[in-house]
Structures are given as C-alpha cells and as structure tokens.
C-alpha cells in the first residue's frame, strides 16, 4: 500500500489507520478473536497505524493490542496512544489531566500494557483546562529525548494551541473529527494551520459514528448514543439520513458503498488540505477489506463537486456532540479576535 509522511519528519503511514476504541469501549462488547483478527488483517494489508488510548476499556485496549501483535509485528506497527482522560471505577469520565508527572506516569503504565519500550506517537486526548499546553508537550518532549516516545501528536485542539505546542516540540499530527458530516476543520483554521506548519491530520469519525455507513436506521429500542450524539436525535435523524440517500447514486456510479465513498472523500482531501489519514473504526476483519477498496477510488474534481452539492458543508442537522461534551473541546472554541494593538503588533 502506498504511504504518505505523517507531518514533516513524522513516520510514513497508509491512507488508512485502524481505530481500536470499539474493540474495548462500545455499546456491545467486541469478540476478542474478531478484534485480534482485525488487527492482523490491518497489519497484513499495510494499515500499520493503530490508534488507541490508555482509557479505552481502562487499559483493556492496550492489553489487547499487546496480545494481538505477533512476532515481528511491533517493528511495522505504529502505535498511537492518547492519554489524559480520567475515569472512575464505574467507567465514567471524571476529568482531563495534563500535568508533567501524570504524562510520565501514564506512559509508564501504557508501555507495560503494550509490552513495548516505546510508543510511536503520544498525544493528550484533550486540552487540560488548568495546565498550559507547553507544560504537557514539554514533558512528552523529555520522553522523546529519553527514547520512550518517537513522535508527539495532539487531539481536538484549535489553531492557537497547535501553534503553542509546535513551538515547544515538532508536532507529528493532530487528531480531529473530519468527515462529510463534520467539516468545521476546513473553516476554523485547523487544517490550514496544520498544512502551514507541516503537521499531519488523522481524521476520525469518517463515517459520522455510523450515519455515513449507508445502512444506519434508528433501532426499534432507540439508540444508546442518543444522549451524546445530537445527529441521531429524532428531530435531526430524518434530515441526516436524507443527506446520506443523496450520496447513493454517486456511490453506485463507482460500484461502491456509501461508506466507501465517504472514506474515499476523506482520503481525497489529502490533495488540497495537507497530509490526511482516515482513521477507520473496525472490530471485524471484513471491515478492513471494505475500507481498503476506498483507497483505490480516485475521485475526480467533478466527483468532489458533486459530493459537495449532495452534502453541502453545514447541511447536517445537529452538532457533533452534546453541549456538555462540546464545551470540553478546544477545537470548538471560537478564537479570540485580536485587539487593535495586537493587530498592529502582528
């Protein structure tokens, strides 16, 4: 599989990455044999970037990846690990942590669970509200120099935070939700900032949490995600599924599914918006094969314009998360306008 550099000086990665969260944190537990087989299928196909976090299943996901890696797999796997989201005994999220001592402690436990002497990309899952990003990135930088971390990433942060972090240590990539249904990174400066600074983007949520699979329908008993995903609220879902239906003729023209078209669209943004890798959330091996077909779809300029007409930016009903969760995202904060003096000084 062809690869692309993930940021200036970063590792080379395939257009697809495997998001492992659903193997440990999901409404329905994943079958472990399926999860292991999925990781094997990805690595064997050249999908080497595995995205995990120490809070996925409260350590279970890292343990799972360690058990799944066969002899020789660690040398080709790129392990991307998030940290900083704190959980209680009941699984509830209870805060965000970014203190240097926590950074180093969290990595120590991750390395033990992963059975590795280093992680390839280490990133705070969210911006800690009370810790300067310089302190957090500075601590990871020390771990880079000590050989425990190869590259530093960020997640769900806005342009100002990206610049401040990058000034401390080169940032490899920024993980952000980006899909046909979540296009704010195009207009809020995140993609532009990453391209300017030579930072890659790992786009998650490429299928809009299932809405862009082309087969989603409201379950008879309701959707357990409805408390945090406004786009499946009864008042929003019909309009959003109508947008999906508008993509079907375009997918049919290529002989692919709507999900494959949506994935191909994200991969195609690499041409204009810098290095972008699509993170596929999968729990079964056949999903890897389906997604790989999307990497072979060469969408033309006319195709991309037709997709934009079918699903215009901003046409989706509902925000991507509930208000309480949106408030935690530095990436969703409106940049403070410069004062007249700041404008002159800049």
Automatic annotation (TrEMBL):
UniProt-listed Gene3D superfamilies: NADP-dependent oxidoreductase domain
Record has Oxidoreductase as a keyword: yes
Domain NADP-dependent oxidoreductase residues, every copy: 15-310
GO CC term, one of those recorded: cytoplasm
Protein keywords: Oxidoreductase
InterPro entries: Aldo-Keto_reductase, NAD(P)_OxRdtase_dom_sf, NADP_OxRdtase_dom
One Gene Ontology term of the molecular function aspect: oxidoreductase activity
Keyword Lipoprotein: no
Protein name per its UniProtKB record: Predicted oxidoreductase
């Amino acid at each position: 599989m062809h690869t692309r550099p993930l940021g200036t000086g970063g590792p080379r990665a395939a257009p697809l990455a495997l998001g492992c969260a659903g193997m440990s944190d999901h409404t329905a537990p994943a079958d472990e044999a399926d999860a292991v087989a999925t990781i094997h299928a990805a690595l064997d196909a050249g999908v080497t970037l595995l995205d995990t976090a120490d809070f996925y299943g409260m350590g279970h996901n890292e343990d799972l990846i360690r058990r799944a890696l066969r002899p020789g797999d660690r040398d080709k796997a790129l392990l991307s690990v998030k940290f900083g989201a704190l959980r209680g005994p009941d699984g509830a999220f209870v805060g965000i942590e970014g203190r240097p001592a926590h950074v180093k402690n969290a990595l120590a436990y991750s390395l033990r669970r992963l059975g590795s002497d280093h992680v390839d990309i280490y990133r705070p899952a969210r911006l800690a509200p009370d810790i300067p990003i310089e302190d957090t990135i500075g601590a990871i930088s020390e771990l880079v120099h000590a050989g425990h971390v190869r590259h530093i990433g960020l997640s769900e942060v806005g342009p100002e935070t990206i610049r401040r972090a990058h000034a401390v240590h080169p940032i490899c990539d920024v993980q952000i939700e980006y899909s046909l249904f979540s296009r704010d990174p195009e207009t809020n400066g995140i993609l532009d900032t990453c391209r300017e600074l030579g930072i890659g983007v790992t786009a998650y949520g490429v299928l809009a949490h299932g809405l862009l699979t082309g087969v989603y329908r409201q379950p008879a008993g309701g959707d357990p995600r409805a408390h945090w995903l406004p786009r499946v609220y009864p008042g929003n879902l019909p309009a959003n599924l109508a947008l999906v239906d508008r993509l079907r003729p375009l997918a049919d023209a290529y002989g692919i599914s709507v999900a494959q078209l949506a994935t191909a669209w994200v991969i195609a943004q690499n041409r204009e918006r810098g290095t972008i890798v699509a993170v596929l959330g999968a729990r079964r091996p056949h999903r890897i094969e389906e997604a790989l077909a999307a990497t072979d779809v060469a969408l033309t300029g006319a195709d991309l314009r037709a997709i934009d007409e079918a699903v215009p930016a901003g046409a989706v009903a509902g925000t991507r998360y509930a208000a309480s969760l949106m408030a935690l995202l530095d990436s969703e904060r409106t940049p403070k306008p410069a004062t007249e003096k700041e404008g002159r000084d800049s």
